[in-house]
């Protein structure tokens, strides 16, 4: 039945934003609400898959039968994600991970002083790229690309550069994707693409799950 056709399939999903501390009271983050990633987790779990959801700080209830692990920073998410990736069949990176973190987190609250101040940022590890480049126990790897311009081109660049099996191009130029109830995606894989038109994130997640499962089985039988 539909409620159990994915029993035995192990899925790990990252979702939400990360928080990069500046000092004990401040951080750098973004507008991801976690809705898209949580919808994917729910859609897989509804079909009997074993789902691990690695979530940044969001205000969402955990979907039924999903194993949720909360993290704050990109480095924390990287550690849990790499440990989990090698134990799962499919890895899906829906999180909006901060590309940079503060070089030296202040131990005390930074006091207001000069008119200008500078923060030095250093690059965070790229979680989905590190999973894509695994040489042992590499899962089927799906990334997202949130872009405001040249969406399809940048998404296809990321598919290759991060060594992914599939990428979900997400046009966020209208300012109505982060936190919204609806979304649209264009999927790309090595020899194909498919448009998933705008609908609720829950419906979109169900269609995405169908496509991921199809491509996962197609790759297994290559
Ligand atoms: O959470 P919502 O409010 O529902 O919004 C959904 C969403 C817009 C966040 C989601 O649909 C989405 O597009 N997620 C990816 C956001 C993103 O950061 O995209 P990116 O193009 O910057 O990153 C490309 C890919 O690399 C993504 O799979 C990202 O998870 C991954 N990445 C990026 C940087 C990093 N250090 N590690 C990563 O794994």
From TrEMBL:
Assigned keywords, A-Z: Decarboxylase, Flavoprotein, FMN, Ligase, Lyase, Magnesium, Metal-binding, Multifunctional enzyme
Catalysed reactions, semicolon-separated: (R)-4'-phosphopantothenate + L-cysteine + CTP = N-[(R)-4-phosphopantothenoyl]-L-cysteine + CMP + diphosphate + H(+); N-[(R)-4-phosphopantothenoyl]-L-cysteine + H(+) = (R)-4'-phosphopantetheine + CO2
Ranges where the DNA/pantothenate metabolism flavoprotein C-terminal domain occurs: 7-214
Keyword Magnesium belongs to the record: yes
A single BP term in Gene Ontology: coenzyme A biosynthetic process
Cofactor binding note of this UniProt entry: Binds 1 FMN per subunit.
Swiss-Prot/TrEMBL cofactor(s): Mg(2+); FMN
EC number(s) on file: 4.1.1.36, 6.3.2.5
Biological pathway: Cofactor biosynthesis; coenzyme A biosynthesis; CoA from (R)-pantothenate: step 3/5; Cofactor biosynthesis; coenzyme A biosynthesis; CoA from (R)-pantothenate: step 2/5
Function: Catalyzes two sequential steps in the biosynthesis of coenzyme A. In the first step cysteine is conjugated to 4'-phosphopantothenate to form 4-phosphopantothenoylcysteine. In the second step the latter compound is decarboxylated to form 4'-phosphopantotheine.
Family: In the C-terminal section; belongs to the PPC synthetase family. In the N-terminal section; belongs to the HFCD (homo-oligomeric flavin containing Cys decarboxylase) superfamily.
Protein name according to UniProt: Coenzyme A biosynthesis bifunctional protein CoaBC
Species assigned in the record: Lonepinella koalarum
Gene: coaBC
Residues of the full protein shown: 182 to 403 of 405
């Amino acid at each position: 039945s539909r409620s159990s056709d994915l029993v035995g399939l192990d899925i790990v999903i990252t979702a939400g934003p990360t928080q990069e501390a500046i000092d004990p009271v401040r951080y750098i983050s973004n507008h991801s609400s976690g809705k898209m990633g949580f919808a994917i987790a729910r859609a897989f779990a509804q079909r009997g898959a074993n789902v691990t959801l690695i979530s940044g700080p969001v205000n969402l209830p955990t979907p039924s039968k999903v194993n949720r692990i909360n993290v704050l920073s990109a480095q924390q998410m990287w550690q849990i994600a790499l440990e989990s990736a090698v134990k799962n069949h499919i890895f899906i990176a829906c999180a909006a991970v901060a590309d940079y973190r503060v070089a030296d987190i202040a131990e005390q609250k930074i006091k207001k002083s000069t008119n200008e101040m500078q923060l030095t940022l250093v690059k965070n590890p790229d979680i989905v790229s590190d999973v894509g480049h695994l040489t042992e126990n590499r899962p089927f790897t799906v990334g997202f690309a949130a872009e405001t311009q040249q969406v399809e081109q940048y998404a296809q660049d990321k598919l290759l550069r991060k060594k992914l099996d599939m990428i979900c191009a997400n046009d966020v130029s209208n300012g109505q994707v982060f936190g919204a109830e609806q979304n649209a995606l264009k999927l790309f894989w090595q020899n194909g693409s498919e448009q998933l038109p705008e609908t609720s994130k829950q419906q979109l997640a169900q269609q995405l799950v169908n496509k991921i499962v199809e491509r996962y089985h197609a790759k297994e039988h290559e």
